[in-house]
């Protein structure tokens, strides 16, 4: 099971924002932004901060991507 944050990056483009803008607005570290960019795990607190700042729902910034093994 994997989580993808592609929706987050698309939302930032739609809002004409850059990653550095999101980082400044949420106060998350560069390490956390890197983890998001690599679709790695981040805490629910971080996800909550992002949703609050962008005024969106969790499903608007991330999605579950099943492993190929799970699809079979």
UniProtKB/TrEMBL annotation:
InterPro entries: Cro/C1-type_HTH, Lambda_DNA-bd_dom_sf. GO terms for molecular function: DNA binding. Keywords: DNA-binding. Gene3D superfamilies: lambda repressor-like DNA-binding domains. Residues 24-61 form the HTH cro/C1-type domain. PANTHER family: DNA-BINDING PROTEIN (PTHR37301:SF1), DNA-BINDING PROTEIN-RELATED (PTHR37301). This is DNA-binding Xre family transcriptional regulator.
């Amino acid at each position: 099971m994997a989580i993808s944050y592609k929706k987050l990056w698309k939302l930032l483009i739609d809002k004409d924002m850059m990653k550095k803008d999101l980082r400044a607005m949420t106060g998350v570290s560069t390490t956390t932004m890197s983890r998001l960019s690599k679709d790695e795990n981040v805490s629910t607190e971080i996800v909550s901060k992002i949703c609050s700042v962008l005024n969106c729902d969790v499903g608007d910034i991330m999605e579950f991507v099943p492993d190929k093994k799970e699809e079979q």
